[in-house]
Amino acid sequence: MKQVKIQIPSLVENIRVVESFIDNSKDTFHIEDDIYGNIMVAVTEAVNNAIRHGNKFDKDKNVYLSLFVNENQLKFEIEDEGTGFDYNNLDDPTAPENLENPGGRGIFLIRHLADEVEFSKDGRRLELTFALSPGDDATTSPTPEAAAA
Hints:
This protein has helices spanning 15-29, 33-54, 106-113, 144-148, and strands spanning 2-9, 62-69, 73-79, 116-120, 125-131. The protein is of the alpha+beta class. It starts with a strand and ends with a helix. It has four helices and five strands, in the order βααββαββα. It has a single domain, classed as Heat Shock Protein 90 (2-Layer Sandwich). The protein has a five-stranded antiparallel sheet, with helices on one face. The longest helix is centred in the N-terminal third of the chain and has 22 residues, at 33-54. Helix 1 (15-29) runs antiparallel to helix 2 (33-54) and helix 2 (33-54) packs antiparallel against helix 3 (106-113).
């Protein structure tokens, strides 16, 4: 298993560093375009949450981002130095009373973009798993019509 780790201070402008990390990982590990977009949105949202809500914009606190790669999956770990949160009791952003709220959709979005989402350390660590395509073998690849469905 291959792994890459970075550590960034809790400044919103460091989201650009995370975007570069994902772009470099796409090239290094040959991440397919069909999951690249999901990874970019989910991981940057998770890091943004860690900076804003976890570390509360404290530039003396860091966010740790790790990528673990094997032939079947990519796993990103995002960890902050905050106090954590109750990830089991979040408001449903699709409930009628929450539709007009300006925030509260990040974790909902992350859960829909990643194949697996797991919280630990009282919500200070988030693991996002993305399954990799089985390869370019014509017998296992979906047809363009099936992929569009």
